[in-house]
Design a protein that fits this description.
Length: about 260
Amino acid sequence: MRTVSSIALAAGVVTLALSGPRAAGAAELKVMISNALKSTMEELTPQFEKASENKLSITFGAAAELKASIEKGEPVDAAILTTATTDDLVKEGKLSPNGRTDVARAGAGVAAHKGAPKPDISTSEAFKHALLDAKSIAFVEAGATAPYIKSLFDRLGIADQVKAKLKPQPTSNPAAKAVANGEAELGITQISEILPYASIGAELVGPLPPELQLYTTYPAAVATDSKQSAAAAVFIKFMTSPAAVAVLKAKGLSPG
């Protein structure tokens, strides 16, 4: 076998070269992935395709929406969704528990318009005052963090005060994008969904205070009826490779 370069080794390509189903020809994998990993996959997709000779056809969206698509029979070979939605789809026989792997974990944060004064959100009390002082607050209505965000207002005792300020967003308009566009003063969402909008006007204020932080884990699983299960398993293995871990961290996520 040809010697693999040190660059390829660092990228985690060796594993793929040894285990990928190249002899059977390239596969086209239909994959559904939560929006939290969108910027990560934009960078990793060409790496995976080059290393494995398989192609990825990815549908991004809120985990709940993608779950509904799978339940309706939308073809899929693998999915990276939240733990809760993955659990449900495994129970329903849509996703296989075999080879299921936690590939990423996301923390929530606050976005503000680039150049605007950043509020103090370092403690629960400071975060509470930042929300009360804000003119508008965006979050994605169908997002994985939405139920927690709503409960957080109750927990802080400010649900009534902030109700009129809330700007629920559709999946097509992430909270950080709404902030960048001037549709909201603050946005609460996962950090990995804030960082991609730095170039168009939104920036990360910081993570939620430690005592209020919400971490969401994203498992990857193969669809039970996939005709490309071997290639899908290679894809999941790639998502835990050194190359993938490096990109996950750069995009505001942590591995597993």
